[in-house]
Amino acid sequence: MFANKFLKKTEFSSYQDYLENGTPIVPEKFNFAFDVTDEIAAETPDKTAIVWVSDTGDKKEISFGELRDMSNQIANVLTECGIRRSDTVMLFLGRRWEYWIIMIALHKIGAIAIPSISQQKAHDISYRIDIADIKNIIAFDDGQIMTEIKTAIGNRPIALMTNMDITEAMKSASKTFGRDENIDNSDTMLAYFTSGTTDMPKMVAHDFTYPLGHINTAVFWQRLDDSDIHFTLAETGWAKCSWGKMYGQWLAGAAVFVYDFSGKFAAENMLCAMSQNKVTSFCAPPTVYKMMLADNNEINLSALKKADVAGEALNPEVFRKFLNLTGVKIYDGFGQTETTVMLFTNKWIEPKPGSMGMPAAGWDIRLLDESGRQVPDGEVGEICVDLRLHRPVGLFKGYLKSDKLNSRAFRNGHYHTGDMAYRDGDGYYWFVGRNDDLIKSSGYRISPFEVESILLEHSAVREVAVTGVPCETRGMAVKATIVLNKYFHGTDALVSQIQEFVKQNTASYKYPRVIEFVEKLPLTISGKIKRAVIRKIDLEKIKKKIMG
Question: Whole-model pTM?
Answer without folding.
Answer: 0.83
